[in-house]
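Example for tutorial group B:
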């Protein structure tokens, strides 16, 4: 049956509970002659899925053409049990999550977080414009997804990393900060969302210039070692300016995320509303993400206890810290899971 004549009702609804229907874009992300997943084709005559080929099997040229035809007609599927392999391909072509209507919200959140972790790690390892561009492109996919329904951020918020690592910390800060921001944003433009998202993700970019031996030291830092960390907000601002990515929210997030309302922060020791709302939001997200994360010298704190500690701390914006605590304490966010377990799980070949 030609693709344009097919109806949704032609494929039994329960198939979507166990299988993904593969789009042409996703199929093109697989190796052409050796698909990394088991493929299934829809048999119209008996209305069931039948195995087509086993993962890793080499296809003939004729089979490659047949697979492409089946895909174009909407008759090619992959099992949800192969989700880890499937998601590894989509991670590098993140815009596909906006095109695949069979992905569930938790699956999309997992894929987006993996993509942000991958792109952030690459950028922090080598902070150059060539690696900033794919990070920015993928982040815009995430904001496009959230723009469609801001409540989707709840699914992301249930998936926080608990290990200390610059890229994981940055992804956590993005998720936490976006969740808090969306609770009180009211009416906002897409541009506002894009800018605050990038500010949250890259607020700590200056830390990539701090020597690894300082970041990974298992005990207390010496004075000279602490002095290597203190300049990182200014370093981050200069890095972003050098890349010509210098809009106000990002520069404020880089410069102010260690400032505190009582003037005890750094580098400028500014007080109260002298700091921007973007700076105060990032300070909260940064501190919360640091508190819940395992570090070389301590274990991560309990999530709810960390939110309560921040809400009780007058050095943080009360409105923002209360919003975070309320969301966690009332169950508005839902059941939390450990994203490290998802990302660090052995990857099937």
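The residue assignment follows.
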């Amino acid at each position: 049956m030609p693709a344009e004549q097919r109806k949704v009702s032609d494929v039994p609804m329960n198939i979507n509970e166990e299988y993904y229907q593969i789009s042409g874009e996703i199929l093109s992300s697989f190796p052409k002659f050796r698909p990394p997943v088991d493929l299934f084709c829809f048999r119209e005559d008996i209305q069931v899925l039948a195995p087509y080929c086993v993962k890793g099997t080499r296809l003939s040229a004729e089979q490659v053409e047949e697979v492409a035809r089946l895909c174009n007609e909407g008759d090619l599927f992959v099992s949800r049990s192969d989700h880890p392999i499937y998601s590894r391909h989509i991670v590098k072509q993140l815009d596909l999550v906006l095109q695949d209507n069979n992905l569930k919200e938790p699956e999309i959140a997992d894929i987006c977080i993996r993509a942000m972790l991958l792109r952030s790690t690459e950028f922090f390892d080598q902070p150059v414009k060539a690696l900033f561009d794919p990070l920015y492109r993928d982040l815009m996919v995430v904001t496009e997804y959230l723009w469609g329904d801001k409540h989707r951020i709840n699914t992301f918020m249930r998936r926080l990393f608990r290990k200390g690592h610059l890229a994981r910390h940055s992804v956590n800060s993005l998720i936490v900060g976006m969740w808090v921001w969306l609770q009180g944003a009211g009416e906002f433009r897409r541009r506002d969302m894009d800018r605050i998202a990038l500010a949250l993700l890259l607020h700590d970019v200056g830390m990539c210039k701090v020597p690894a031996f300082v970041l990974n030291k298992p005990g207390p830092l010496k004075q000279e070692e602490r002095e290597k960390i203190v300049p990182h907000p200014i370093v981050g601002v200069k890095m972003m300016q050098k890349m010509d990515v210098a809009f106000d929210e990002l520069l404020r997030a880089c410069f102010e995320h260690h400032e505190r309302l009582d003037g005890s922060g750094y580098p400028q020791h500014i007080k109260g509303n002298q700091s921007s709302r973007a700076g105060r939001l990032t300070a909260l997200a940064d501190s919360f993400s640091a508190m819940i994360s395992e570090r070389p010298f301590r274990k991560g704190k309990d999530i709810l206890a960390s939110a309560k500690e921040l809400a009780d701390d007058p050095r943080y914006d009360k409105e923002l810290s209360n919003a975070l605590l309320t969301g966690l304490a009332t169950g508005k966010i839902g059941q939390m899971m450990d994203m490290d377990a998802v990302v660090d799980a052995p990857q099937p070949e």
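The first strand starts at residue 19 and ends at 21. Compare this with the pattern of hydrophobic and polar residues in the output above.
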